[in-house]
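Record 1 of the preview.
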Amino acid sequence: MNFILKDITAVTLSERGILERSSILVKDGIISEVGDFEKLKALLPGAEVIDGGGKIALPGFINAHTHLYSSLARGMPIKGAPSSFREILELIWWKLDRVLEPEDIYLSALVGLIDAVRCGVTSLIDHHASPNYIRGSLDLIERAVREVGLRAVLSYEVTDRNGKKGALEGIEENVRFARKIKDDDKIRASFGLHASFTLSTETLKLCREAESDLNIGFHIHVAEGIEDLEDSLKKYGMRTVERLDREGVLKDRSLLIHTVHIDESEIDIIEKRGVSTVHNPSSNMNNAVGYPPLPAMLQRGLRVGLGTDGYTQHVLGEMRAAIVLMRHATGNPS
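->
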């Protein structure tokens, strides 16, 4: 696939900055040059020319945390009025994921991925759960990813909420898929965990042992709702990040999602371990879980990604939400 996208404003996110009245040369499906149209035309005579009409061209976005199966929740009625984050899980998400069948998994992934493309997302990190169809579930999502043509990191959510058998099958699915996909250049695996409050010490030990030979890191929700923190304090006498660190979850390739209810001591641990976190502003507001100590994390130089938590695939909209929410939460308009 060779073509020149002519007459665009290229936002390079590099030292070249923003290039007005520019063009992009795509050679063999890869962006090879950005610059003057006539110069690019000389590099590849005969290439198809597409008029950009003066529009803005941005690099593809990365959605650092999503749930593709949440495509099925749009317009889904809720029986009852949730008054806490745990009730949201029980009334919506834990009901939905338990009824997912193979066709549901594949089609919901396909819908979510197409939506992602429409929103300019070219890479995403998905966290999947389907307790009654675990083995092979990641293959169905992989199939959809390849058909749409994105890059992705896939994982299956290990949890104790569906019993020991379900937890063991979740571990096996992560390991199986990671080994299958280890040499792929477009799709990778992470080791999915739900959250501290749904994972026993025994299960986390099994996960840690299973991941040790893979070195793919963990993808886990951390202190999203206050329930996660309260559970850790009550059962283990320590805060959520402290507990996960003790259990060996905080590896350099791990992703800590949300980190809403964490304090300065936990930020110290995250910084020491070199772990990445992911901010999900619209989801946090929708679930009324609170605001993470984002300014402190950024000031400390922590790696903070941006995710949608399946609430949407509109990463550019999440950027705006993140800015506005930070101003509101800190009382600082700048």
